[in-house]
Design brief:
Blueprint: E1 3-5, H1 8-19, H2 21-27, E2 49-51, H3 52-58, H4 63-73, E3 80-84, E4 97-98, E5 108-109, E6 113-116, E7 126-134, E8 148-151, E9 163-166, E10 170-173, E11 176-179, E12 189-190, E13 201-203, H5 211-219, E14 224-228, E15 232-237, E16 242-243, E17 254-255, H6 258-268, E18 272-275, H7 283-296, E19 299-303, H8 314-321, E20 324-329, E21 332-333, E22 337-345, E23 348-356, H9 360-378, E24 389-393, E25 397-398, E26 404-413, E27 419-423, H10 432-437, E28 440-444, E29 450-451, E30 456-461, H11 462-465
Parallel strand pairs: 7-8, 15-18, 15-19, 16-17, 19-23, 21-26, 24-27
Antiparallel strand pairs: 1-2, 3-14, 4-13, 5-12, 6-8, 6-9, 7-11, 10-11, 20-22, 22-23, 24-30, 25-29, 26-27, 26-28, 28-30
Helix pairs in contact: 1-2, 1-4, 4-9, 6-9, 7-8
The structure holds adenosine monophosphate (AMP) and magnesium ion.
Length: 467
């Protein structure tokens, strides 16, 4: 068993900060230091070493530490595959995309008009015969000395020409073009390599590709690109009370609502996700279901049963099938019980387990804050965790201090156009309604007993967390 020293906490935070410049920026001075001592097992301050099992049994990790460890599990990213550009939206670039040629590849006209050689021209009005034409898709002849050439948008500038006069500024007198103003060299000419020079990095490794990146790749003549494979995620809800939504409402049962939301969030984070059949609160069935899922998926997300109640079987079942738990409690609200571990597989990458609490708001918030970033890290995304933003509270939020809280809120705009947040009434971890209404989470540091109206706070936008 590997040991864990308390001092490790500082090291892994430093590692997180160096990999996550934005996170450090966002969190400096905002997240609590108050719970730091609780992140160490008893005696940890003396630098004692604890067997791993003992460590996680005691530890309540700070949020940053938990996030840092989870992101470390997602590193290095999964292997690489080549994908046609049509299917690249949302995928993460596995190597720098380097321009193999200049972009654009030749000088061309940005206007319909007349190509000219400015050196040849005298004072306006200028009269030049029109000789030939340059149209798109065909290379033109060279410009004859002392003449102009008809040219169209996107067509190559003929050799010898250095400007294009837009046709609105030209009158025709039979074969003669008459220019009322003297054109400037380079006017309406897009030069080869203006956009990007051959050899330059067009898109950096680790970039999550958006539609505009696809256009850039296509412009660079790339038909297929190396991206990181999408993580496979299996989602397993546990609980005797669960039934499929829309099925017979047997008294005492509830419609299961976590797998749909987590599956959608996992897909938005770039994973292939599927929900497995619900697992009853029964030890043998739980172990069987976990063991099967861990063989198949890169990440297994369990829901519920992770606390300390008599029917909370997830942790013992995970350990029984061979998962090494890294930690299982984080000083945050909602979502304190959260089991994180690894499952070794012969000749393959370890599977990663996230054991989320079953309360719907806790499950969603912990998945948004840990699950989605883990999936992004596995996909090679250079920015697995989104930046926090500053916003002004429209009303006070009062609460009991103790844990870093992520308060459900709605964003808006103040009179000056600044971002505002309005915290929502029901912050219970079972409240699905405010979860659906919220489009942001306000971060309230552990030691604070509330935030007054008008205060500036850090917020995480749901669209950033689960865009
Ligand atoms: P647990 O984490 O298993 O102790 O569950 C905490 C609360 O969340 C209980 O009220 C459960 O009924 C509820 N819950 C657990 N799993 C789900 C689920 N998948 N969908 C909806 N509610 C759930
Ligand atoms: Mg349960």
């Amino acid at each position: 068993m590997g040991g864990t020293r308390c001092a490790r906490m500082g090291e892994s935070e430093a590692a997180l900060h160096s990999r996550q410049g934005r996170l450090r920026l966002a969190f400096t001075g905002n997240l609590d230091g108050a719970s730091a001592s609780r992140a160490c097992p008893p005696g940890g301050d003396a630098g004692l070493t604890f067997p791993r099992g003992v460590w996680y049994a005691f530890a309540v990790l700070r949020f940053e530490e938990a996030l840092s460890r989870i992101l470390a599990l997602g590193t290095p990213a999964l292997s690489v595959e080549r994908v046609p550009i049509e299917d690249l939206d949302g995928r993460v670039l596995a190597e720098d995309l380097v321009a193999r040629a200049d972009l654009p590849g030749f000088d061309y006209s940005s206007m319909d008009g007349y190509a000219v050689r400015t050196r040849d021209l005298g004072e306006p009005p200028i009269r030049l015969p029109v000789r030939g034409e340059s149209r798109t898709g065909v290379l033109p002849d060279a410009l004859a000395p002392g003449s102009s050439m008809r040219i169209f948008t996107g067509a190559a500038i003929p050799a010898g020409a250095d400007a294009v006069v837009m046709q609105e500024n030209v009158t025709r007198d039979g074969d003669i073009a008459v220019f009322t103003a003297a054109p400037r060299a380079g006017q309406n000419v897009r030069r080869r390599g203006d956009d990007l020079a051959a050899g330059a990095i067009a898109i950096a490794k680790g970039t999550r590709l958006r539609p505009a990146h696809l256009a850039l790749a296509a412009s660079l003549d790339e038909a297929e690109i190396a991206v990181t494979k999408r993580p496979e995620v299996a989602i397993l809800a546990t609980g005797d009370e669960l039934r499929r939504p829309g099925t017979d409402a047997v008294p005492g049962t509830i419609p299961e609502s976590n797998t749909v939301v987590l599956r959608a969030m996992a897909r938005r984070a770039g994973a292939r996700a599927r929900a497995l059949p619900y697992v009853r609160d029964e030890r043998a069935a739980t172990e069987r279901a976990f063991a099967a899922a861990l063989e198949e998926a890169d990440v297994v997300v369990t829901i519920g049963g992770v606390s300390v109640g008599d029917h909370d079987l997830v942790r013992p079942a995970l350990e029984a099938v061979g998962v090494t738990l890294d930690f299982w409690r984080v000083a945050m609200k909602p979502g304190k019980p959260l089991a994180v571990g690894r499952f070794p597989r012969a000749g393959r990458r370890d599977a990663i387990v996230l054991g989320l609490p079953g309360n719907p708001a806790s499950a969603m918030v912990t998945f948004a804050l840990f699950g989605a970033p883990l999936l992004r890290a596995l996909s090679g995304d250079a920015r697995p965790f989104p930046p926090t933003r500053r916003a002004r509270m429209t009303r006070a939020h009062v609460r009991d201090p103790g844990r870093l809280e992520f308060v459900r809120a709605m964003v808006g705009h103040g009179d000056g156009g600044e971002l505002t947040v309005t915290t929502l009434g029901n912050q219970a971890s079972g409240a699905v309604t405010t979860m659906a209404q919220s489009d942001a989470l306000v971060l309230v540091p552990a030691e604070e007993s509330g935030v007054p109206a008008g205060a500036e706070v850090d917020v995480l936008l749901m669209s950033d967390l689960c865009g």
